[in-house]
Amino acid sequence: MGVALITPFKNDESVDYDALARLVEYQVKNGTDYLVVCGTTAETPTLTEPEKEEITRFIVRCAAGRLPIVLGVGGNNTKAVVEKLKHEDFNGIDAILSVTPYYNKPSQEGLYQHYAAIAKVSPLPIILYNVPGRTGVNMIAETTLRLAKEFPNICAIKEASGNFTQIDEIIKNKSADFMVISGDDGITFPLITLGAVGVISVIGNAFPSEFSRMVRLALQGDYKSARQIHHHFNELIQLLFVEGNPAGVKSMLAVMGFIDNTLRLPLVPNTIKTYEKIRLVLNELNIKC
Length: 289
What we know:
- By secondary structure, this protein is an alpha/beta fold.
- It has a single domain, classed as TIM Barrel (Alpha-Beta Barrel), CATH 3.20.20.
- 47% of the residues lie in helices and 12% in strands.
- The protein has helices spanning 17-29, 49-63, 78-87, 108-121, 132-135, 141-150, 164-173, 188-194, 208-219, 223-232, 234-241, 247-255, 272-284; strands spanning 2-4, 34-37, 69-72, 95-99, 126-130, 154-159, 179-182, 198-201.
- Strands 1-2-3-4-5-6-7-8 form an eight-stranded parallel β-barrel, surrounded by five helices.
- Helix 4 runs parallel beside helix 6 (141-150) and helix 12 crosses helix 13 (272-284).
- The protein is globular.
- The two termini are 24 Å apart.
């Protein structure tokens, strides 16, 4: 289980580095296998470049080599991404997560050429990230498999299309060393039964111990025990995304006392109604609030 870390903000919307340090330590001590930094859940579109660099350096220092770090490096300007990969200081970073280009809506050939350009210059292994609900374009299985076959440093895909047929096609036809990672907490368990290797998780921000245990049980073939945890968190996972990510998980972490419930526009906190539902479900799960 990798965790897509949030960016905690103070009430004045500045980065809350004290809260971020606590979150990193919480992940290190509670079963998370690796951290994903400056991904979508981190509200990266609203962070300045200097903030992204400082947040990355800060998390690397806090983790202190105890967990691998995956850094989000993507965009809809291929040349800019390539230049970043050529010149960025990747000290302490183990891999990159690169989202499909958003807004432009490239063709499948355009997606292939975009990632080919990235693969040719990246100094680190690359995890593809397919999330059509956010980007407006779906990378089909054929394109993913083509990239995985032609570029050895493309090692995995975070699949968040929600399309079981597409994901299963990748799993069925991929090479043994190419990894398929769930990009959706709610379907992680069934995807592992199909052959996925784990998840890059949102709910793991709040429940790293419990959710990583579900992943490990499923990977070990103990589907009965894993299914119980999966069902245990079903309602909470649905509430996480009803008003968008990371509003849900930030509400959860605020209820749990980890952070201030602050987001940067255009994102806003959950409504009181959803916040109270989250609080009630946490209480029903016997989680201290």
